[in-house]
Amino acid sequence: MASMSLSFSSSLCSSRIPQEKRIIRQRDTTLVRCVLAASKSSPTKKRIWKQGEFPGITEPVNQRRTPIKNVKKKLDRRGKANGWACTVTETLSDLIAKKQWLQALEVFGMLREQPFYQPKEGTYMKLLVLLGKSGQPNRAQKLFDEMLEEGLEPTAELYTALLAGYCRNNLIEEAFSILELMKSLPQCQPDVFTYSTLLKACVDASLFDLVDSLYKEMDERLITPNTVTQNIVLSGFGRVGRFDQMEKVLSDMLVSTSCKPDVWTMNIILSVFGNMGKIDLMESWYEKFRNFGIEPETRSFNILIGSYGKKRMYDKMSSVMEYMRKLEFPWTTSTYNNIIEAFADVGDAKNMEYTFDQMRSEGMKADTKTFCCLINGYANAGLFHKVISSVQLAAKFEIPENTAFYNAVISACAKADDLIEMERVYSRMKERQCVCDSRTFEIMVDAYGKEGMNDKIYYLEQEKQTLMDRATKEEENLPG
What we know:
Keywords: Repeat
Structural class: mainly alpha
GO molecular function: mRNA binding; rRNA binding
Number of helices: 24
CATH class of the domain at 89-184: Mainly Alpha
Radius of gyration: 27 Å
CATH topology of the domain at 89-184: Serine Threonine Protein Phosphatase 5, Tetratricopeptide repeat
Shape: globular
Family: Belongs to the PPR family. P subfamily.
Number of strands: 0
Helix content: 55-70%
GO cellular component, one term: chloroplast
PPR repeats: 120-154, 155-185, 191-225, 226-261, 262-296, 332-366, 402-436
Mean pLDDT: 84
Oligomer: single chain
């Protein structure tokens, strides 16, 4: 087992736990299997080049160009003069694309020391967005202050990028401070994007009183919410079950001339009712949106498939899959993940494996969720030796091992009553600096509780509190 991504002990292979017999209607799963089998012979859509798209000759061959004297000498001089700058700026762009914020800041610092380099607004914008997404709002603020010191005029877009960094890290008070500052600057007045960013932060934090006040302020400033703004609020109301307010926002969109509902609105509503298992409402709203002239996309069908799968409505799941093929909508990784997850939840390893094999035969790339579903499915079926092979295969495919992945493996160990292996996986998770979440501790506490290991529960809860305190302290002491 030395080559495994996670070093499982032999005890996991030999562990067995009693499993309740899973009852699945043979007709339902056969429907899905038939659809999967039929997909092998589905014709592939040919690529038709449009005018101007064909990657051929873009200009007449015989067209004469104006001769340029000493071209080679000029190019050589330009290359020697700007070679270093081009190389470093390309490196900076590459680091930003790879989301390596610390290295990007170091390279940017090197560039700013050069007399020939004048950073532009676009570069600051990219760095501010990167730092916000990377959980570094205070560093974003520092970079913004340095930009002002260098004499670059701020814009509403730059302030909104800074504000978004605070919002992404749930620093609502700081984000509102930026909003107040923007309102005091004539050239940096907040716009609909600024308010949409703040609304999303308030919705995610369930601060619905602030949502109402922001809407009122937008109205006073004659800023009309757009479809994105309304979709953000719709999603928030739906997530917490505020269906009356959700319907009010949706009704306003239907009569509005500036923010009509779109396919994203449709997907949000389908997800809300689908995740709650309210299939009748999901189907009713699907038909309503179709009557409004909104056509579904691949994600819409994936939501339907996932919702039907969770309710074990395999016949309807198969119907959607067939409909997608009929309309030439591609089956994506998410499509296959939803089907695999449906079988995994009930421990139907046979159909789960068949779907996974079909996914690979079509050249579809598996992701972390795929393997989380496979691990959960094998654990539910009591096939713990296949949990190990799934982890090995994930390592072979270089699948990212995130929190959800480790939680799936820890849960499988707990179901196998192999607490020693569970602790080893947990240690591995911490060694890889993968963040433990509430689900991680919940699984382990439950496993220890079944064995009456109260001392283990005590130390685990102490460790959880320590991690929470450390995270809070790091945020407070982050250099600004």
